[in-house]
Write a sequence for this structure.
């Protein structure tokens, strides 16, 4: 990925306030209804949060893609002439231009000059989402009252996850630029990530072994990632879709009937991923932004 130019840095700084407002305003999980403007060709790009990892029914095991994922629901509501969902579990910004596996070519291959709507959910794997979860859950087993995971990432005096998020910003910008190059007429909607843990910073050790001191730090890290994605969307002519605000109160600590995010032990979705209700909420936010 190429580095961010001076002009892009300037645009990013100017867009930061707009991005922050977008984060705090939020979008409700409105019902999936058709947008006012007809869509002819819709392409969905992204990772497991968009693919619906583990959500029944899985229609592409190599990419953990569900037929009830956010793009499928958006497609059903908008009824475009053509629709391609190439979201794939484990995808990073690298997989926009490089094959991920033998059945998952570069996601950008799905784009064309006549594409008029693109949704993008990316960035979580660029900062090492899976590794963060494994580390924090494992370390929490030994010190639930402390902040062992935070300490492991900050013992040098620098928050390594914060630095990684900052380093991912130019990759998000380059991804949006790449979409623009291949689909110049498309409206680009870039989604954030819904809440995994309680927004009030509490934990639920009986459900998942995230330590008491790690929970608020992980929440803040999550929000930092979303803020970065929002800023890059605003700075590069895309629309940021806030999926976090509406998901507050539906995190992995909540009861089965309430949660949109699944805990470690589940059969409703991949661990720490949106379930069917979470995918529907994401689709509602996308459809509200698409109008």
């Amino acid at each position: 990925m190429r580095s961010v130019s001076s002009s892009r840095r300037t645009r990013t700084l100017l867009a930061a306030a707009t991005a922050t407002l977008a984060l705090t305003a939020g979008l409700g999980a409105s019902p999936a209804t058709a947008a006012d403007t007809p869509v002819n060709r819709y392409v969905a790009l992204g990772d497991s949060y968009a693919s619906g990892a583990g959500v029944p029914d899985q229609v592409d095991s190599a990419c953990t893609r569900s037929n009830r994922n956010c793009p499928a629901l958006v497609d059903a509501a908008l009824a475009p002439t053509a629709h391609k969902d190439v979201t794939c579990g484990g995808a990073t910004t690298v997989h926009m231009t490089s094959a991920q596996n033998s059945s998952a070519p570069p996601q950008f291959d799905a784009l064309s000059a006549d594409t008029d709507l693109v949704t993008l959910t990316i960035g979580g794997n660029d900062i090492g989402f899976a590794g963060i979860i494994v580390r924090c859950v494992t370390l929490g087993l030994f010190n639930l009252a402390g902040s062992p995971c935070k300490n492991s990432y900050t013992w040098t005096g620098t928050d390594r996850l914060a630095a990684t998020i900052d380093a991912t910003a130019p990759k998000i910008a380059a991804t949006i630029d790449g979409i623009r190059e291949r689909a110049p007429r498309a409206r680009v909607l870039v989604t954030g990530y819904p809440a995994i843990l309680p927004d009030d910073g509490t934990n639920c050790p009986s459900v998942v072994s995230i330590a008491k001191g790690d929970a608020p730090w992980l929440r803040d890290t999550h929000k930092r990632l979303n803020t970065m994605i929002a800023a890059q969307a605003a700075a590069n002519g895309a629309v940021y879709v806030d999926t976090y605000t509406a998901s507050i109160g539906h995190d992995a600590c909540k009861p089965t009937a309430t949660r949109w995010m699944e805990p470690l032990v589940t059969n409703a979705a991949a661990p720490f991923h949106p379930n069917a209700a979470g995918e529907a909420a994401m689709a509602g936010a996308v459809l509200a932004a698409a109008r």
In short: Strands lie at 41-46, 58-60, 65-66, 82-85, 117-121, 187-191, 239-241. Residues 160-182 form the longest helix (23 residues). Helices lie at 6-25, 48-51, 70-78, 129-140, 148-154, 160-182, 214-235, 276-290. The chain has one domain: 22-290.
